[in-house]
Amino acid sequence: MNERISIEEIIRLYKIDYSFLDQLIDSELLHPETENSVRYIIYEELPHLERFANWHYDLEVNLPGIEIIHKLLNQMEELRNENRKLLQNVTRFETWEEADL
């Protein structure tokens, strides 16, 4: 089982509004688990929650803005990964061509 923290504990520790956390869950930016009617967030999602809370409270970004920024950052990461793979393929091809000379 994944390590997790209850939503009530998150609200207490991070000092965020329950409604904000609920909006993140409703928009599927966070994916809670429920056990015995207690909702939990897995530890792996905490960096996302911290980032969303910083954008919202420190930069005053609203939920639609958070969704857009998150989507664009994910797309950038996917493009970086694709670029890395393409560069590895080019390097392999160049090495293969040099071996044939």
TrEMBL record:
Q: Which domain of life is it from?
A: Bacteria
Please name the Pfam families in this protein's record: MerR_2
Q: What is this protein called?
A: MerR-like DNA binding protein
